[in-house]
Amino acid sequence: MSNIQINNVRKTYPGGIDAIRGITLDIADGEFCVLVGPSGCGKSTLLRMIAGLETITDGSVSIGDRVVNDLEPAERDIAMVFQNYALYPHMTVYGNMAYGLKNRGVPKDKIKVMVDEAAATLGLSEFLTRKPAQLSGGQRQRVAMGRAIVRQPQAFLFDEPLSNLDAKLRLKTRVEIRDLQQRLGTTSIYVTHDQMEAMTLADQLVVLNDGAVEQVGTPIDVYNRPASVFVAEFIGSPPMNLMPGEIDESGLVTPAGVVAAPAGVRHGAVTIGIRPEHLHPASDGPLRLKVRVVEHLGASANAHGTVPGHAVEMIASLTGADLPDKGETLGLTVAAENLHLFDPETGRRLH
Amino acid sequence: MVERRPFLTFIQHAVLILGAAMFVFPIYLAFVASTHTAAEVSGGVPLLPGAEMIRNYSLVLGEGISAAGAPPLWIMLMNSTIMALSITIGKIVISLLSAFAVVYFKFPFRMLAFWTIFVTLMLPVEVRILPTFEVVAQLGMLNSYAGLSIPLIASATATFLFRQFFMTVPDQLTEAARIDGAGPMKFFRDILLPLSRTNLAALFVILFIYGWNQYLWPLLVTTDESYYTIVMGIQRMANAGEETPQWHLIMATAILALLPPVVVILAMQRLFVRGLVEVEK
């Protein structure tokens, strides 16, 4: 058990491509940290640098007060779960889980106790003599988890471990991973491009963009107060509505109408962000939405459309039975505290 | 294919049977010839086996054909086996290690090393046979098992095959092994070797036959009868100088020379076929 400190870490590939451009993170002991971002944002590279599979160009990584920059992956006392599980195909489940222990010179009888215990934790006891090819995708995923937990490392590193599972199993395994991590209390870093996974798993959510940290915080913080347009668009499904606007004496002028502006924001051009679920139908509401498509999700429905007279796309998430039809123009209202305002130049939050 | 057309089935089988017969017939002829007396064979080989099988085979196995200047058959069989096995095992060990180095280690001139190995694919034994002979002669390795096998051990084909196979092994497997604390040689032994099992078997069969069938090279480097291999031995028998070649005995030798490769193929058949047709995932 230990904390992980990432101090101004950089990665420059030969040819001068900056994959990681100075990231500083502090992950507390036992914390579940999720790195999320679109593909190519450097999240996997950062994880692999922590694991020791990529060299660190500049800065330092320490695991439990020990700088690990120049240590081999095996010496860093971490375990990693790979996207394609990377199980040894010729070894049984037992062999897969025991291999790391065997290489560390753990006595045979002790290995057996440890593997049996880890297998019991994951419900793998009856599969110990099988080969990976004889297991289903979900079971293989659990073997990969088992290989990680059996060594009782200081940290778990997950590299998109759920992306090879089907949607239903992904939900189930997501809960299992969270539950397991809480029970073991092991510091974990988890990489994903799926914002839903990131939201549900994280203690600390790190949104990465183009090799730099865009925002760090608890999932709820990040969701409620996105620090930039990028985070606002990336976190949340359906994504946040964004439209240009301006603040003057009358309030916030949007393409869809004038609404009250939040207090303490400078006058001038802004980018307005409104989450779909914060739009409520009101026949005299200041915002107008010409509905093009209605998606019924059961508990709620998403109305997709445009603001009449403008080329601005908007989505409203509606609950209740009174749903609009295609082609109808909907009046919508939004509370001032649910408005997100960003600087159109820098993309940063204004309030 | 799921087709139900009886006529097509008939044609398919006819073609297959004809093809098989074409391949089997010479061997059948050799076998028939080996079961007759010299007189019966001399006028043309009969189509049905004769009664002299046991006598002919015990003759070649025991005494050899002294008149033809060949040693007893079992010595030649043993020489061939030793040569074929040394070539096979040597080739596999060297090509495994060189492919491992080329794929998994970064060192200067790595690709140059690989291409140098690859270029030798274009130089078959026969092309470089004179310089090789000169080197072997200077090293005093004529008439020895080392001289028979070492010059044939370097193998570009096997190196290339293993390189291609190693490149299909997912990187994550290597990384998982690194995290599990396996050093390079441990990774090689515990992960790569077991994964290459089927490829190894296929190569073993192919290379064993390659080694067994070596003809020109043993003919050059051996002058001492006790190092004759069976394939060149047959040639010695056929060129029996003044006398008529004893075809019935030569054919018996040929049939016996066929057996070891067949045994190797049968023993490794399952792995061999799998190694050629599929990559174990």
UniProtKB/TrEMBL annotation, chain B:
<comment type="similarity">
    <text>Belongs to the binding-protein-dependent transport system permease family.</text>
</comment>
<feature type="transmembrane region" description="Helical">
    <location>
        <begin position="112"/>
        <end position="130"/>
    </location>
</feature>
<dbReference type="Pfam" id="PF00528">
    <property type="entry name" value="BPD_transp_1"/>
</dbReference>
<keyword id="KW-1003">Cell membrane</keyword>
<keyword id="KW-0812">Transmembrane</keyword>
<dbReference type="InterPro" id="IPR035906">
    <property type="entry name" value="MetI-like_sf"/>
</dbReference>
<protein>
    <recommendedName>
        <fullName>sn-glycerol-3-phosphate transport system permease protein UgpE</fullName>
    </recommendedName>
</protein>
<dbReference type="GO" id="GO:0005886">
    <property type="term" value="C:plasma membrane"/>
</dbReference>
<comment type="subunit">
    <text>The complex is composed of two ATP-binding proteins (UgpC), two transmembrane proteins (UgpA and UgpE) and a solute-binding protein (UgpB).</text>
</comment>
<dbReference type="InterPro" id="IPR000515">
    <property type="entry name" value="MetI-like"/>
</dbReference>
<keyword id="KW-1133">Transmembrane helix</keyword>
<feature type="transmembrane region" description="Helical">
    <location>
        <begin position="82"/>
        <end position="105"/>
    </location>
</feature>
<feature type="domain" description="ABC transmembrane type-1">
    <location>
        <begin position="77"/>
        <end position="268"/>
    </location>
</feature>
<dbReference type="GO" id="GO:0055085">
    <property type="term" value="P:transmembrane transport"/>
</dbReference>
<feature type="transmembrane region" description="Helical">
    <location>
        <begin position="142"/>
        <end position="162"/>
    </location>
</feature>
<feature type="transmembrane region" description="Helical">
    <location>
        <begin position="247"/>
        <end position="268"/>
    </location>
</feature>
<keyword id="KW-0472">Membrane</keyword>
<keyword id="KW-0813">Transport</keyword>
<comment type="function">
    <text>Part of the ABC transporter complex UgpBAEC involved in sn-glycerol-3-phosphate (G3P) import. Probably responsible for the translocation of the substrate across the membrane.</text>
</comment>
<keyword id="KW-0997">Cell inner membrane</keyword>
<feature type="transmembrane region" description="Helical">
    <location>
        <begin position="191"/>
        <end position="212"/>
    </location>
</feature>
<feature type="transmembrane region" description="Helical">
    <location>
        <begin position="7"/>
        <end position="31"/>
    </location>
</feature>
